[in-house]
């Protein structure tokens, strides 16, 4: 490969979430090819300049990369007429010889909108500036998703914004909320639009994602740390940058590439704003590292913005001590070499760029003042510092110097890229370009020394800082309007007296403020201080103050001039970031991150003293029922009470944290042995058995507790948490409400459970589930009354798994809801077969899980199944367990009442093994009591079981309920149940579970025998 190419990059800005993340990757790719990068920053927000129209460095640059439409039509035409390769990033090339590198905006936005649809959102709004190419592609992706999923497009749900910023997202949301078309989700063209949407929704009392789901685009650093964290699409910056450079070099060395466009895929990043659980937002350790890096870098960036404001103020103060501003004293971030060239006419009237100022912080050569260069040959490549040579770490930055009056010329800078410029638009050298242009303008107009106050006025116009000027000779402080506004947020009067200012300062900060103003006299150090001032009521605002002393020719301090910034929001954000990072928002307990830090520290202490520690995982049993029946607000209040009570069960030196949901984790930081773990667990379990009183209602709880010991069971933080989790799950699988200590055998059991769960997730769609039917026979007539539906799982390896093995897992993972719906539909379809085969009065019984029973729309689902299958309501009997029936009596009475109104029969299954009574069940609208098989098994030999069965049958009949005995296996059991006048029996004696075809044959055989 030929080395030593110069690659020109034209971009509106060189910092921020978009340009600042592309440029470093481009620079690295160019360096790896032993070439140079010239970066031309063209945008000037003050003057409204958005594109480059002058052929700066045109003869020097071998190939061009344009980031977004950053070149004017005339410059593009010049490129189109030349033989120089050029690559357009983020937009399509307007000329055939140009090539484009584009993020796959359309497909990725389609994926994001489909994700919202998969969450159940049917009304989705789009917010974005569709006049931009990439935003328009995202809008088309939104349309594609609606079309693919069969949803209607409604123009009223599209808001076309003027820009991609927060305020536009906020305004768009207000407009949509005033409309009359319902919607539940937003697809935003950019993350800043999306964050504006969230701010607006939250300010109006809406919850994200509970009331509205939101997805953004770009994955800026604020997205990961927002609350809620923003689901978004991650721009493939590195891939786009590398592809643009690759194409440029391929065009230089080999000619035209095969394709005129390179489409780079973008990835959907799922977080919590779309409705996915916050605790599962990190798909990998790299995602978590990305989140934590964003938190850290945003804090650093917020701090550096404040410090850089001061540095720029200080630089301007230093610059104005001379007759003219010199570029070496302005704020250029990390740039160490610079050259200012201004337009001048030669003897022939031709305009050239003439060097008027230059500097080098490292002592490198600089071009001589007065040397002239044509525009297309600037900058002076013979004088560029060594770091800009092919493969060097420095970038050459070119920027036009313009003001309202005229086009002054160009400045060239050399230095490394600031790594923080890819987090926010943090490059304050932008202000230095403006300051330089304004300084040149004023020098032209007045040609005299400008006062320090005039220079501070420039800073005042280009920053949000307040400016103050303390005249030491008169002992009066002058505040500009901005400073006065900052300090006037108090009921106390602000005057030009220093004492009046001091009274505004918080008492605890006054000493530090006095010392700060003394130090410059002694050490010649500038003033830098953060302090609080009084606000309204008891509120205090945070201020960052910077300044320096002005000395006269005699060396006497005559003034102190500086700036001040309201950093209250920054301080609040820092506190919020810390809280989000280390504290659970609901309970105030430590979160997983802080817990792991504390556990790691405790492990090191135990390594030193030779003692042990314990990790305990606590999961509340069946807590989901509370959320489903009482609502999440009640559930949250109950969790807060539980957190307080659990915290009271451990010592002050121990830690209890909330992992999310109803899961807690405990660190017993110093123990002698397992006995202490057992003692703490018993205390917690006893505490949970006591009723929790909430809004007049009592709640009874239990928990599954797992524990492991360090260093006996694990050697690192993650393994200890995992082993405690395994032990806890083993407890839950065995009924809960107790403690399990980890053993290595639990790991293998967990693997088996995982494999079963994975298989069960696909069992339904693979057709592995099958129904059997066990006959129910009337004892008074001997006829077949109906059949109970029994579910079987036939795995691909030929095994048949019984319900007792997989139904608890299905309930725990909520897979029981789709499985239960399928069972209900298939059972009713088989019943229709039986009716058509001449069995119109048969009743099909179907077991309903607790999760199905908690569905508010369950009665409507039953109605739909009856309509779709064509069977009558009296042909269907729904069985619920005794435990489910009495768990929430108010809900059960309401739900069963709706089902009875439909006309279906209701049976209470497994009756007799719970703590309820028939008198309690009298409140429920049920028809049948199913006697648990445990009473039937030994009723002939065991008089107690016989007495219980007799009592249940007699009391049921007295309440108008019929009784079905389950588990009848002998003739003796049948005769005894006849004597007790039991209505129906079910069991191996009258028929084992069978297929639908076998049941039809069974019924016909019994009918034939009866006749």
From TrEMBL:
GO molecular function, one term: DNA binding
Keywords recorded for this protein, A-Z: DNA-binding, Transcription, Transcription regulation
UniProt keyword annotation of Iron-sulfur present: no
Domain PAC span(s) in chain numbering: 527-579
Residue ranges of every copy of the GGDEF domain listed in the record: 611-744
Positions of the EAL domain: 753-1007
Pfam family of the protein (one): PAS_3
PANTHER family found in the cross-reference section: BIOFILM ARCHITECTURE MAINTENANCE PROTEIN MBAA (PTHR44757:SF2), DIGUANYLATE CYCLASE DGCP (PTHR44757)
Protein name: PAS domain S-box-containing protein/diguanylate cyclase (GGDEF)-like protein
Origin organism lineage: Bacteria, Bacillati, Bacillota, Bacilli, Bacillales
């Amino acid at each position: 490969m030929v080395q030593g190419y110069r690659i020109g990059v034209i971009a509106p800005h060189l910092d921020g979430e978009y340009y600042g993340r592309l440029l470093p990757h481009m620079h690295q790719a160019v360096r790896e090819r032993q070439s140079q990068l010239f970066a031309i920053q063209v945008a000037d927000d003050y003057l409204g300049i958005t594109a480059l129209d002058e052929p700066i460095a045109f003869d020097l640059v071998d190939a061009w990369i344009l980031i977004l439409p950053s070149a004017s039509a005339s410059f593009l035409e010049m490129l189109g007429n030349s033989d120089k390769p050029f690559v357009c990033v983020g937009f399509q090339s307007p000329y055939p010889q140009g090539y484009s590198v584009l993020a796959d905006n359309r497909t990725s936005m389609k994926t994001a909108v489909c994700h919202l649809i998969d969450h159940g959102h049917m009304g989705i709004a789009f917010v974005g500036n569709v006049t931009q190419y990439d935003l328009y592609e995202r809008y088309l992706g939104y349309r594609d998703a609606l079309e693919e999923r069969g949803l209607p497009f409604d123009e009223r749900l599209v808001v076309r914004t003027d820009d991609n910023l927060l305020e536009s997202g906020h305004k768009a949301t207000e407009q949509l909320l005033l409309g009359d078309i319902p919607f539940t989700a937003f697809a935003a063209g950019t993350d800043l639009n999306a964050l504006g949407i969230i701010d607006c929704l939250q300010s109006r009392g809406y919850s994200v994602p509970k009331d509205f789901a939101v997805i953004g685009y770009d994955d800026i650093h604020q997205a990961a740390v927002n609350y809620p964290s923003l689901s978004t699409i991650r721009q493939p910056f590195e891939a786009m940058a590398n592809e643009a450079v690759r194409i440029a070099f391929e065009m230089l060395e080999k000619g035209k590439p095969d394709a005129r466009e390179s489409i780079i895929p973008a990835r959907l990043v799922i977080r919590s704003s779309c409705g996915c659980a916050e605790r599962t937002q990190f798909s990998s350790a790299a995602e978590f590292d990305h989140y934590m890096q964003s938190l850290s870098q945003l804090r650093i960036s917020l701090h550096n913005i404040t410090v850089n404001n001061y540095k720029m103020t200080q630089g301007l103060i230093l610059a104005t001590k001379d007759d003219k501003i010199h570029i070496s004293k302005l704020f250029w971030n990390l740039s160490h070499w610079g050259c200012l060239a201004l337009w001048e006419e030669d003897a022939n009237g031709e305009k050239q760029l003439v060097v008027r100022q230059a500097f080098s912080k490292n002592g490198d050569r600089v071009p001589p003042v007065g040397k002239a260069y044509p525009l297309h040959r600037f900058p002076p490549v013979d004088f560029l510092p060594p770091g800009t040579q092919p493969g060097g770490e420095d970038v050459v930055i070119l920027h036009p110097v313009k003001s309202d009056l005229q086009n002054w010329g160009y400045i060239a800078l050399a230095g490394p890229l600031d790594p923080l410029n890819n987090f926010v638009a943090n490059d304050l050298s932008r202000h230095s370009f403006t300051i330089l242009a304004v300084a040149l303008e004023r020098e032209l107009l007045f040609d005299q020394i400008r006062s320090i106050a005039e220079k501070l006025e420039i800073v005042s116009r280009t920053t949000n800082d307040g400016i103050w000027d303390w005249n030491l000779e008169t002992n009066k402080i002058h505040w500009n309007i901005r400073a006065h506004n900052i300090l006037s947020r108090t009921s106390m009067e602000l005057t030009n007296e220093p004492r009046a200012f001091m009274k505004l300062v918080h008492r605890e900060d006054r000493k530090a403020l006095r010392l700060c103003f003394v130090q410059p006299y002694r050490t010649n150090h500038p003033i830098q201080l953060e302090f609080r001032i009084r606000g309204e009521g008891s509120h205090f605002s945070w201020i960052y103050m910077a300044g320096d002393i002005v000395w006269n020719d005699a060396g006497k301090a005559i003034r102190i001039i500086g700036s001040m910034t309201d950093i209250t929001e920054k301080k609040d954000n820092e506190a919020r970031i810390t809280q989000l990072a280390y504290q659970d928002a609901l309970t105030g307990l430590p979160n997983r991150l802080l817990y792991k830090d504390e556990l790691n520290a405790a492990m090191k202490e135990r390594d030193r003293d030779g003692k042990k520690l314990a990790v305990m995982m606590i999961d509340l049993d069946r807590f989901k029922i509370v959320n489903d029946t009482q609502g999440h607000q009640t559930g949250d209040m109950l969790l807060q009470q539980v957190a307080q009570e659990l915290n009271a069960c451990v010592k002050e030196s121990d830690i209890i944290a909330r992992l999310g949901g109803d899961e807690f984790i405990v660190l017993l930081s110093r123990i002698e042995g397992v006995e202490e773990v057992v003692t703490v667990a018993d205390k917690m379990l006893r505490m949970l058995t006591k009723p929790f009183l909430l809004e007049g209602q009592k709640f009874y709880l239990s928990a599954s507790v797992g524990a492991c010991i360090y260093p006996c069971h694990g050697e690192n933080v993650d393994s200890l948490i995992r082993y405690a989790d395994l032990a806890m799950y083993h407890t839950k699988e065995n009924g809960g409400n107790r403690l399990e200590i980890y053993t290595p055998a639990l790991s293998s059991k967990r693997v088996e459970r995982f494999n079963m769960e994975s298989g069960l997730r696909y069992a339904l769609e693979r057709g592995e589930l099958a129904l059997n039917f066990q006959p129910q026979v009337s004892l008074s007539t001997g006829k077949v009354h109906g059949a109970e539906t029994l579910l079987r799982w036939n795995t691909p390896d030929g095994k048949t798994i019984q319900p007792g093995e997989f139904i608890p897992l299905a309930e725990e993972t909520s897979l029981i809801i789709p499985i239960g719906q399928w069972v209900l539909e298939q059972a009713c379809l088989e019943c229709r077969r039986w009716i058509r085969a001449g069995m119109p009065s048969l009743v099909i019984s179907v077991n309903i899980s607790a999760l199905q029973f908690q569905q508010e729309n369950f009665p409507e689902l039953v109605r739909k199944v009856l309509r779709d299958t064509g069977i009558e309501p009296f042909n269907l009997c729904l069985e619920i367990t005794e435990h489910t029936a009495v768990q929430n009596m108010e809900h059960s009475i309401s739900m069963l009442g709706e089902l009875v109104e439909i006309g279906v029969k209701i049976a209470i299954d497994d009756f007799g093994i719970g703590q309820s009574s028939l008198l309690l069940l009298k409140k429920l609208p049920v028809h049948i009591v199913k006697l648990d098989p445990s009473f039937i098994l030994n009723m002939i030999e065991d008089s107690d079981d016989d007495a219980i069965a007799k009592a249940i049958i007699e009391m049921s009949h007295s309440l108008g309920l019929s009784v079905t005995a389950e588990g009848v296996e002998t003739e003796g059991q049948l005769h005894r149940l006849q004597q007790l006048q039991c209505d129906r029996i079910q069991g191996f004696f009258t028929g084992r579970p069978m297929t639908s075809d076998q049941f039809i044959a069974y019924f016909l055989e019994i009918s034939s025998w009866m006749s």
